Amino acid sequence: MNSENSASSTVSRRRFVAGMGALGVAGAVGGASLVGCSPKADDGKKGKKGGKGGEAFDIVIVGSGGAGLSAAISAYDKGVKSILVLEKMPMTGGNTNYSSSGMNASETMFQKEQGIEDSNSLFAEETLTGGHDTGDSELVKFMCDNSGPAIAWLNDLGIKLDSITLTGGMSVKRCHRPTDGSAVGKTLVPGLLKAVEERKIEVRINCDAKELIKDGDAVTGVKVEEKGKAYDIAAKAVILASGGLGANIDMVTKYRPDLKGYVTTNQSGATGDGYAMAEAAGAELVQMDQIQIHPTVQQEHSQLIAEGIRGAGAILVNSEGKRFFNEMSTRDKVSAAELEQPGGFAWEVFDQQVYDKNKAVGNYDKAGLVVKGASVAELAEAIKVDAATLKATIDTYNAVTTDGKADEFGRDKGLIAFAEGSMYAIKVAPGIHHEMGGIRINVKNEALTASGTPIKGLYAAGEVTGGIHGNNRIGGNAICDIEVFGKNVGEVVATALTK
Length: 499
Fold this sequence. Notes:
By secondary structure, this protein is an alpha/beta fold.
């Protein structure tokens, strides 16, 4: 166990919330072709009647988050038209809907336009270092090398991510967000769904994949259920893009008993179904105990507070009004440091400049998560910390921002002096955020057995896979993961099927 676990007892009293977040997206976003889950007659282009009252498609994708939708689009554009996307929830997008930081990527068109010097090798090095050198170096290199082209691909789809900022553990601005600095998920999911709709790819909501169908060693379809009715859907290839397990406390505590009582940032459909299905079909699960907690979660609403706010200059102070750690360090280290503070929480403090640069803050404010003050003294009174101490903390921080050196905690990125005027704070503590382990894959997204043998017909992408992030995920790398490997798996499968 790492240091964050030793302090976990301080939050054991917190309820586990499998919530949608204070700023959740309601309904199916973007108007894609959404239908209820039930067998359909042969329509020629899409599904054809299969055995046992089901249907047959070339590709069945389980999950309609960023990885699943990207796989569908890229496979279609590579020539496969018989594609079905299954979504067990009544809304599409999965956890991608709630992604707030952005998409890390290197050597991108937008970095070059803005004069930001970066390299794929540096991105890979910092990703591996951030994961404490426990990630799969081949997968990490593949992700980083293909991140720039993925940004360009999204741009071609009309999804422009040209506002670039820092996240913890990165030394270069490479976290790409929408132009207005808003949460990336609210641009990414509607953009991908629009592309799906334009291609007339079928997405079925309320359609729960329960089990993979096998013929010998090969996966040949999926058993699904709707309103208690079960039937089969045959497929030449099945892509699992079913997301994580953060909303399933039984599965969370199976792998990490110390996380009992934590809130979760995950949407309620993140129940780990894909792990169970893949394992039952012979796939190896790796690093499943590596469940990341995020340091800045507003506890009452289980709302993740975007990492870009710290990257833009925010600081963390404890109940005494004092800074205690490098806010731009990796998530595991910041979380552990928070849990060591009185009460196991922190106040994320920022000024009007940060408020204005991050559109997400306005949404947090509307949801009632932000405490305000017209000055440092007023904010201190509102959050019940000593005003003189908080002022001294901010004065010390401001002084460091002018000398070009790292501060006393080692922070040397995102050091931006606070301006006079309005001040803001959000009360935060760690929450369950991301399963970094999962299905073992290779760079072809093939699901692998424990011996490293690909399972014919079974592929996986996104949070359901393991090995990329190691035992700590860098903020902004999840969207990179789902986009690079989501796009890749669609192309790989389409190429295999159209040979």
